[in-house]
């Protein structure tokens, strides 16, 4: 396969590498991801994370395995293992469905390679289009609030919600970005803060519990988040804490926008209740760990509930900003997501 480089994926000499998102921002460390076991381990540990990126990394590995001579049955088994690596972000399933179609072709090796590369290029284009569509909604002098990490780290391109924010900043419309630290794994505090710093976008890091008082003081003009799955009725699964922001935004009369590529749509999923929500290890809540070290503050045997995502009902969303443009609540109520945008 040709050499490939995005913010957090690299293919060189037919080997796949990922930028370790658990080590950032303290360390910039590229790790091998050359087998299903290695990549699934990285995905479980969130060293590779973000809905679009998970799907792209799995597709690239599958193509590389095909080039190394795995037969169709072995590739199918690899595909199914990769598909089961995380349950909530549908981009993984959507990308692998497309790879599976190519696997059925007679000449499946070049077919898989070109499909994986196409998915990467497509993601870059979709991100650009989301940024253009979304930036039109950002008013001059905006103080925006964002959650989790939706930038170049999480995609092959400029990101989703963070791509919008960055373009709006380049257009001179962003006064400040409030970055939710995003407990428990701190994707905001570690990754979004780092990306905005690199991009030169002014930001202030806050703990998740500060959003309400900032809104009450009139310091937030809009909330921008990404998505891991958008159901047919417009309900959105995203990083845990997103739903609370949507409720707060509605109470304070602040627009709440979801930015995502079409690979995040799941027309087969009728509503948010049907979205599988990943449950994660207790240790993520009883303490914190990263390249900075590990600490536990809760009692050794503390009981923990740790869902990685929550569902924001469609009625709380002001606009779904997709690569095809902004979808309004009225369009969603009329069923625009029910057959997929291209259906
Ligand atoms: O658990 P993560 O870090 O993979 O969760 C990521 C999110 O929830 C993002 O908001 C979402 O994937 C959108 S990424 C462009």
* CATH homologous superfamily label of the largest domain: Translation initiation factor eif-2b, domain 2
Uncertain stretches: none
Tell me the number of helical segments per DSSP (H or I, 4 or more residues long). 11
| Total E-strand runs | 17
Biggest β-sheet description: 7 strands, mixed
Task: Tell me which oligomeric state these chains represent.
Answer: single chain
CATH class of the largest domain: Alpha Beta
Please tell me the total number of domains: 2
CATH architecture of the largest domain: 3-Layer(aba) Sandwich
Q: Give the helix level as a range of percent.
A: 25-40%
**What is the residue-mean pLDDT, rounded to a whole number?**
97
Distinct compounds present: 5-S-methyl-1-O-phosphono-5-thio-D-ribulose
**H-E order:** EEEEHHHHHEHEHEHEEEHEEHEEEEEH
Q: What would you call the structural class?
A: alpha/beta
Gyration radius, to the nearest Å? 19 Å
Strand content: 15-25%
- Within the largest sheet, what's the order of strands? 7-6-5-8-11-16-17
Give the termini separation: 32 Å
Shape: globular
């Amino acid at each position: 396969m040709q050499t490939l480089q995005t913010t957090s994926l690299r293919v060189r000499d037919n080997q796949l590498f990922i930028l370790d998102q658990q080590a950032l921002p303290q360390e910039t460390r590229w790790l091998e991801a050359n087998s299903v076991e290695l990549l699934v381990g990285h995905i479980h540990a969130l060293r590779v994370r973000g809905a679009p990126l998970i799907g792209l990394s799995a597709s690239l590995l599958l193509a590389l395995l095909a080039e190394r001579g795995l037969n169709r049955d072995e590739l199918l088994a690899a595909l199914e293992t990769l598909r089961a690596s995380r349950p909530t972000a549908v981009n993984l399933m959507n990308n692998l469905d497309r790879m599976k179609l190519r696997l059925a072709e007679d000449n499946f090796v070049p077919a898989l390679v070109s499909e994986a590369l196409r998915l990467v290029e497509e993601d870059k284009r979709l991100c650009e289009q989301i940024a253009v569509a979304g930036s039109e909604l950002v008013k001059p002098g905006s103080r925006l609030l964002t959650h989790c990490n939706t930038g170049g780290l999480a995609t092959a391109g400029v990101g989703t919600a963070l791509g919008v924010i960055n373009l709006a900043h380049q257009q001179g419309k962003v006064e400040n970005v409030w970055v939710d630290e995003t407990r428990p794994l701190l994707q905001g505090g570690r990754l979004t803060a780092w990306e905005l710093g690199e991009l030169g976008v002014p930001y202030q890091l806050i703990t998740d519990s500060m959003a309400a008082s900032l809104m009450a003081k009139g310091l937030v003009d809009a909330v921008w988040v990404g998505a891991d799955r958008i159901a047919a009725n417009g309900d959105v699964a995203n990083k845990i804490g997103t739903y609370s922001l949507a409720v707060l935004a509605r109470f304070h009369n602040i627009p709440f926008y979801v930015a995502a590529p079409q690979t995040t749509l799941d027309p087969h999923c009728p509503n948010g209740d049907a979205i599988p929500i990943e449950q994660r290890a207790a240790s993520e809540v009883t303490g914190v760990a990263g390249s900075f070290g590990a600490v536990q503050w809760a009692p050794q045997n503390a009981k923990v509930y740790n869902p990685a995502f929550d569902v924001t009902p469609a009625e709380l969303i002001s606009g779904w900003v997709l690569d095809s443009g902004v979808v309004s609540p009225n369009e969603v109520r009329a069923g625009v997501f029910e057959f997929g945008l291209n259906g």
